[in-house]
Amino acid sequence: MFAVRAATVRFGHTLALDDVTVEVPGGSVVAVVGGDGAGKSTLLRALAGEVPLDSGTIEAPPKQRLGYLPASSGSWAALTVTQNIDFVAGIYGLAGEELCARRAELLDRASLTAAAGRLAAQLSGGMRRKLGFIMAVVHRPALLILDEPSTGIDPVSRIDLWRLVSEAAASGAAVLMSTTYLDEAERAAHLVVLDGGKVLVQGPYDEVRAGFAGVVTQTGEPVRPEWAWRRGRVQHEYWPGAGPPPGATAVAPDLEDIVIALSLARRNAVLS
Amino acid sequence: MTAVQLRARQATRRFGAFTAVDDVSMQVRPGEVVGLLGANGAGKTTLIRMLLGLIAVTSGSIELLGGPPDRQRRRRLGYVPQGLGLYGDLTVRENLSFSAHAYGAAEPALPPALTGRAGVLVRELPLGAQRQVAFLAALAHSPEVLVLDEPTSGVDVLASAALWDTIRAQAERGAGVLVTTHYMQEAQQCDRLLLMSNGQLVAQGSEADIIGSTTAVAVRTGDWAQAFAALSAAGAPVMLAGRAIRVPNANPAQLQQVLDAAGIQASLQPVPATIEERMLVLARATNGL
Amino acid sequence: MIVKEFRELVRDRRTLGLLIMMPLLLLVIFGYAANFYVSSIETAVVGPEASHAAAALPPLFNVTVTQPSGTKADAETLLQGNKADVAFVTGQTPVLALVNGSNLFAAQSAVAALNKEGGKVDTQVLYNPGLKTSWVMVPAIIGLILTFIGTIITSIGMVREREAGTLEQLAVMPIKPSRVILGKIAPYFLVASIDMIIVTVLGIVLFGVPFNGNPFAFALGAAIFLFVTLGLGVFISTISQTAGQAIQTAFFFLLPQILLSGMIFPLEAMAAGVRWIGYLLPLTYFTMISQGIMLRGAPISSLWLPFGVLTVMAVVVFTGATLRFRRDLAPGRPASPARKEPAAGETVSTA
Fold first, then answer.
1. C155-174 tens-digit pLDDT
2. B 131-170 near A (Cβ less than 8 A)
3. Which domains does chain B have, with CATH numbers?
4. Which of A61, A210, B116, C50 is geometrically suited to a Cys-Cys bond with C68, CB 3.0 to 4.6 A?
């Protein structure tokens, strides 16, 4: 079990993380969602040891047992796929027969075997991300940290990446990943919703859904615009406590509704 | 306002031996939001560049607001590229001022979310706010046509909803909007869809038109993770919609065999495919699978 | 468009600095430093008639050493150690004037003045008998190449990681910061050394430049100097976000060295107010070493000053640069007490 406990991080005047506690058990995927500035990247980098905490503790393995995929490309553009993997594997102490076997296995799982001799710069976005993933798991880390691995990637590669991630978790790694795609968060064993550096809610999807308080209605004209948002052609509106006016059409909230509703609740509370 | 704002007629573009866009005919009318879908390398970007008049057609024709896409007509166009086209080392105000002047329009007012940040350098804003600024810059001159390349990529749901509010408002104002996207939730926000693959326009119309006759098999099971792993290992193109497992273009009997062999209880049901699944099938066909 | 460009320029402090500082620098240099005429020649006089001769010399010759008991050999030693531009050996007729050919402009001034004396003085130019510019330039150019590769090329190579976003990954991997630096610098060290050898050989072959001194001493001096310039390269990379910025900053360090290190304009001819800048520059000291060893065959002992200064510079610059780079690679890691490791026997992955 790895974790971040009561972590607070300040950058100048900004509170990037505010008393955040997240546990990442081995063998499961923890997904962190939230908007820009919510603190997702900071949380991941704190667990990776890149960002020092102002208070709180980190429970993480030594670098040797840690795998990290940053939000940037994650690979060296001027090296080929094979050279990239070899370089990283070398740092972790993999060599010779063991390295060759491991590399072949990972390339096959990521459908990159055909592109093994291509320069990283010549790969499509999705393939480059998969390469970055391979480089992060080549040494079988106990803790795998992935910063927005599938953002901006074509849907087909996204599915591939998800498969790789779930395979890593299935073989025992603890995986912490951040994402803007809520369908990925739904699939995680445990999801964490961040907003403004605070945890709005966390837990398995079913629990989050069950524990969601308030009602979401569907309407053409929202009564309170600051509590409403667009979904497709209609507007959804959130009624946290008092309850919606009679006659309003309630909908079963999905994860997108829940995330937006809770974010609005926090921001409106801050403003009032 | 012209009847059709963007039009391609049998437009083709070749780069040497490579055909990036192959005989594509499409149009965007005032007030509609058209979504352009396709995998990387399908030709979306090339088509857009042709529509904007940035590159020439090899054959066929392009019309922007009733004529060739020249500089005059581009004045009535708003474009937000994937890279946003903003100057990172200038403030919000300065960026808006520059583009307003370039188009000969008045400087736009800032929405409430950005009023406090007029003097902030654009590169220091979070991505959602940057996209908002890029939108403002593109809309300041009340364009009749809007072309947006992946407008909400990397942005959280709340900000994404706000951006789509803006897009809808523009369409209601009478502008024709062309949007490219990878995200299927976004595709569902469009009035009409165009699907490209290998340079060709493979399907167009409503979501049903795009899906065509592609079907999928929905796998209902208690143990989705195991089922996913088993089917994946068997080489099936397994997709996930949230937690529901679906396999496009598959034979239910074959899947049942795989699941039985793995000892997994599941019920299989043929269903119409999703857009994503159509795209996956196309991609696999391109790769010879 | 004009307004936008101006706004961007104002924000770009480095380009602004270059735009403003460079003309000022050039003006100052060309005003005070650019001078080929050496107005005061460091002179030594040895031999029985030393004091007599010293008094008789025109004011151009600034007598700093008078050794009545000295011989021709002592005079040569003085010149070899670059303690004087001219050494007069008295006690024979005509008086022997030994001119230090490795200080080109001082030598030229001296020779011009001595030729007016006619038969009274027998002039011999040592170390660079033909008073050839190339003989003096080549040793300086070797230093310039090392500076170029060390600062500009190295800084770009290091900044590339930052630009590509891969620096983050290196920071998280179990690789020590010092190894990252060494790994990044080693290729440039090698390339610079090879370049240096090529230029030296070419200089000897094409221009006939001699190599009179100890090659090992030369190599040692070059190595120390390389550490200074490589250290500067690393330092520049820690204060630059893009390759463009790195080049601008490196240029900032390079230009003064070209103009004020004595490579083009002799240090002695510069106004004192500007000359001290020259004494702060590493290239100045390497040029002393390269000219001393190649032209004069000077022993290390006589070059203790430039060797010493360069060694101190190397230690200071390299240490400072490494510490800064460390900070980039491992922000809070060693000092962070908050980081605990879970008990042994925890989750082992076979992903």
1. 888 888 877 778 877 888 88
2. 150, 153-159, 161-162, 164-165, 168
3. 6-210 (3.40.50.300), 215-272 (3.30.70.790)
4. C50
